[in-house]
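Figure 2 data, in text form.
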Amino acid sequence: MMSLNQKNELAQVVEESTLPIEHNGGDGWTILHGDTLQIIRAFKTQVFDALITDPPYASGGWKPAEKNRTTTQKYSSMDPKNAPPDFDGDNRDQRSWTRWMAEWLYDARKACKPGAPVCLFIDWRQYPSITDALQWAGWIWRGCVVWDKMTSRPQKGRFRQQSEYVVWGSNGPMPVSRPVGCLPGVFRYANPQNRTHVTEKPLQLMRDLVKICVPGGRILDPFCGAGTTVLAARLEGYEAVGIEVTDAYYKLGSDRVRFALEAQSETAK
């Protein structure tokens, strides 16, 4: 397992002409600091076995004034003084967001091996657009996984909005002979308490989801936020490369992954 933290080791996945890129990492993982649209073009071809990510939804409202609120205002009821930092890239309108998604997904596909799975978190508002973007970028759309959050704010006379979704597909044909078992189509996990990131996903959910990747493979998360996917991948025995543009989350995510893995290592002794 390479450390992915030194220049000569990072060069296994990134074109050397683009180095140095600010990064932080350790044994089998690294988080790159910068804009996904720029960094993703620096990857070598066919170096990732899976793409699993939670991109900015650019959702949380119908009117421009609602969409242009801060991410804490849109996705959290916490007091701003106690809320996690806001994150970048969540203020696009639907057409701009769809174009942006298609653009980075196109470049990401070139960095993924044939047959590599792709898993993208999304809410109901942007579900139609993300399936368009995925297919425009050349991926095969294969279905939808449901994340049942089990709780939600009740609204009389309406269905509860207690689910988010994982749109998934593959980079071309996906042989059933891959050494991967049958995964559930519905995951039931409550939102994590004491979140580091305002839209943080449960760690156990991500540990279950990364198992779509072939054993020991290398997983890319272009929007790694608090580092949950990177951490889940390492805990399940995968290599992981994340990208994060927001300064606060680049530091928070890197520290979180490092401390969690160090704690696990100490416990295992």
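Caption note: The CA atoms of residues 57 and 131 lie 13 Å apart.
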